[in-house]
Amino acid sequence: AQTVTQSQPEMSVQEAETVTLSCTYDTSESNYYLFWYKQPPSRQMILVIRQEAYKQQNATENRFSVNFQKAAKSFSLKISDSQLGDTAMYFCAFATPNFGNEKLTFGTGTRLTIIP
Amino acid sequence: GAVVSQHPSWVICKSGTSVKIECRSLDFQATTMFWYRQFPKQSLMLMATSNEGSKATYEQGVEKDKFLINHASLTLSTLTVTSAHPEDSSFYICSAADGETQYFGPGTRLLVL
């Protein structure tokens, strides 16, 4: 069974600074997908970024980027120029290919607070 | 794109009544939708996988007769909490799969009195 570990329950950073959230996972699969979702106080889960394991290039989405280390089974999220709207719970998630029926395995989350 | 709606956003009901929650993919067709439950300050717990035109697949420990799921079209899945009790009070979230990526609805807060 796959597991996802987020070792930082809470983090805080000053506005405009850069912050990195860590995520490690355990799997015996060679092909899989990794995701970061954010859940702000509204509780709407929002996709931040996704990575396909067979792609060596790290995914980026504007201020958000990942450091994907397949051998180390690590998938950290870097938020640059952090903004107040980035305050949220961040969940790392893992899925193995299953023809559109991919179940997500979530980590326990990291609560990120951006300080004005 | 990839917008998922959920209705209602919150509901209060009396113990013993049934409550139906709708999940719609607004701008894409979703063969597969998922239903989650989230307790305060915890991660999401998968309840069931809903496939259009077939019976839902429930996770271990989730009562099929308690949580009825119907996925009658490629854009709509419903979750009915039957004979609700206070312990069913929770935040219920649906998601719709667009390929391997799940897009989530805004959630439904259920309070059973």
Provide structural commentary:
The complex is a heterodimer of chains A (116) and B (113). With 116 residues, chain A is mostly beta strands. Chain A has no helices and twelve strands. Chain A has strands at residues 3-5, 10-14, 19-21, 24-26, 33-39, 46-52, 60-61, 64-69, 74-79, 88-95, 105-106, 110-115. In chain A, strands 2, 5, 6, 10, 11 and 12 form a six-stranded mixed β-sheet that branches. Chain A has a four-stranded antiparallel β-sheet with strand order 3-9-8-7, with no helix packed on it. In chain A, strands 1-4 form a two-stranded antiparallel ribbon. In chain A, strand 7 and strand 8 form a beta hairpin. Chain B is globular. Chain B is 0% helix and 56% strand. In chain B, strand 9 and strand 10 (101-104) form a beta hairpin. Chain B starts with a strand and ends with a strand. With 113 residues, chain B is mainly beta. In chain B, the strands form two sheets. In chain B, strands 2, 4, 5, 6, 9, 10 and 11 form a seven-stranded mixed β-sheet that branches. A four-stranded antiparallel β-sheet of chain B has the order 1-3-8-7, with no helix packed on it. Chain B has no helices and eleven strands. The chains are: A mainly beta (116), B mainly beta (113). At the A-B interface, strand 5 and strand 6 of A face strand 4, strand 5, strand 9 and strand 10 of B.
